[in-house]
Write a structure and sequence with these properties.
- By secondary structure, the chain is mainly beta.
- It is built from 1 helix and 23 strands.
- It has 4 domains: 54 residues, Cadherins (Immunoglobulin-like); 98 residues, Sandwich (Immunoglobulin-like), CATH 2.60.40; 99 residues, Cadherins (Immunoglobulin-like), CATH 2.60.40; 42 residues, no CATH class.
- 1% of the residues lie in helices and 44% in strands.
- The strands form 8 sheets. It has a 4-stranded mixed beta sheet, with no helix packed on it.
- It is rod-shaped.
């Protein structure tokens, strides 16, 4: 075998002892043992020989670090994944034997935010969720893992976990301003309320549509930005018909199933002097004798006004 050579060492008494000499570096991972045949030949004629078999077993040295199957592991998971769910499994192999080839896995200098959300199994390389994920809080996690063998050699890989959005947020309605009470004589198209409607989800899950319920002379209009809504008068108010209006604004997102948010709005109508007094009769006819005494009551007329307060106080002349 070219890895070995035979040398002779001469003793003081003149005898020679053969020595097996290593000629080049061994690699147990390529060849773990060698079978050699040593032959000794004497000087007779004919010569006689003897043989002996030599087995060389190569013991392992920790000369190989663990090697990951990938330098970057990527996976996509849903944000509603329960705690303890399997995210992915990394794998590293070590060509050494025994404890030198035994691999353990761990995080490599990751912040507490990572270790609180994920856990790695030191024996099999499984990465599982340790806490609730939130797409709105963080949609991507990138961190390092290390594989260490029993002799202390280490290798690293990167893990990228992309969190996908789920429809876990209902639309939120905030009333930024509300004009109440509203005079009943304001023109149609007057802005009554300014609203902010947002949904923290993304994509269709965050696309919001709004509708009003209740018999109110109001309509809702979306602003160009999409997140603000305004309530405007759709027809003239009449306090004498309704002194206030209560309505419910319902916002629904585009998820399946959809989530909804609601807000209750009450608009009080302020009186305007838009009603004239009305007599109980259009014409009063009274017959009296010509000798009626001065100061006698001939007839009592009555007029009413639908307005309130001073607007509804009637004087006669």
């Amino acid at each position: 075998n070219p890895s070995f050579s035979l040398a002779f060492k001469e003793s003081p008494g003149g005898s020679k002892q053969p020595e097996l000499v290593l000629e080049r570096e061994l690699d147990r991972e390529k060849q773990s043992s060698f079978e050699l045949m040593l032959t000794a030949v004497d000087g007779g004629d004919p010569a006689r020989s003897g043989t002996v078999q030599i087995r060389v077993n190569v013991t392992d040295a920790n000369d190989n670090p663990p090697v990951f199957s990938k330098s970057l592991y990527e996976v996509r998971v849903s944000e509603d994944l329960p705690a303890g769910s399997l995210v992915l499994q990394v794998r590293a192999t070590d060509a050494d034997a025994g404890t030198n080839g035994a691999v353990s896995y761990s995080f490599s200098n990751v912040p507490g935010a990572i270790s609180s959300l994920f856990a790695v199994d030191s024996e099999n390389g499984e990465i599982r969720t340790a806490g609730p994920l939130d797409f709105e809080g963080n949609s991507k996690y990138i961190f390092d893992l290390e594989a260490r063998d029993g002799g202390g050699l280490v290798s690293h890989c990167k893990v990228q976990i992309d969190v996908t959005d789920e429809n876990d947020n209902a639309p939120e309605i905030t009333i930024l301003s509300l004009s109440s009470p509203v005079p009943e004589d304001v023109p149609v198209g007057t802005v009554v309320a300014l609203l902010n409607v947002v949904d923290s989800d993304s994509g269709e899950n965050g696309q919001v549509s709004c509708e009003l319920s209740g018999e109110a002379p109001l309509s809702i209009v979306a602003s160009p930005g999409g997140s603000y809504k305004v309530l405007v008068l759709a027809k003239a108010l009449d306090r004498e018909e309704a002194a206030f209006h209560e309505l419910v604004l319902r916002a629904s997102d585009g998820g399946d199933p959809a989530r909804t948010g609601t807000a209750r709005i009450r608009v009080t109508v302020l009186d305007a002097n838009d009603n004239a007094p009305v007599f109980s009769q259009a014409e009063y006819t009274v017959r009296v004798p010509e000798d009626v005494p001065v100061g006698s009551v001939l007839v009592t007329v009555t007029a009413t006004d639908a307005d309130e307060g001073l607007y509804g106080h009637v004087k006669y002349s």
